UniProtKB/TrEMBL annotation:
GO molecular function: transcription corepressor activity
GO cellular component entries: mediator complex
Homology family: Belongs to the UXT family.
Name listed for the protein in its UniProt record: Prefoldin subunit-domain-containing protein
Coiled-coil portions: none
An example Gene Ontology biological process: positive regulation of transcription by RNA polymerase II
Length: 153
């Protein structure tokens, strides 16, 4: 009996200290990817709006941080500065920016797909640990473990 309770404690420790934090971490990473993708999609829509309406200058509201906005006038919409990561901003034409955004969206989608696969794997491991815990607890009660005919499929 003590041996089984040690196994239960080990499984619970593994579940709560390893698998659940890993699942939350990967879930948070995927959420960041979704937010970044959303930002790029908004930017792309703004650029397409500027192009389709052939706007040469633009008045807009700019978020200065902490939801504090200021009115801004953009005298020339020929170029746009795009954050390419690591604190770097690159001056691009509107067409170049759309091309960059398209490539970036594809990259973010691949990352998101990988995180989704990782979430599925971790969730499967969690389910397996719960099944193992249930089986150990059933053995402690003196019940027979269920026959698993799916092992050889």
């Amino acid at each position: 009996m003590a041996k089984d309770s040690d196994k239960i404690a080990d499984y619970e420790k593994f579940l709560h200290e390893k698998l659940e934090p890993d699942l939350k971490h990967v879930w948070d990473l995927r959420e960041k990817i979704y937010e970044e993708t959303s930002d790029y999609m908004k930017l792309k829509n703004y650029i397409q709006l500027i192009k389709s309406n052939e706007l040469k200058e633009l008045k807009t509201m700019v978020d200065l941080g902490s939801n504090f906005y200021a009115q801004a006038k953009i005298p020339d919409t020929t170029y746009i500065y795009v954050n390419v990561g690591f604190g770097f901003h690159v001056q691009l034409t509107l067409d170049e920016a759309i091309n960059y955004i398209d490539r970036k969206e594809k990259l973010l989608q691949r990352k998101s797909d990988q995180y989704t696969q990782d979430i599925s794997k971790i969730s499967a491991h969690i389910k397996l640990v719960y099944e193992a815990l249930t089986e150990i607890m059933n053995l402690q009660k003196g019940e027979e473990p269920p026959l698993r005919d799916d092992l050889f499929l």
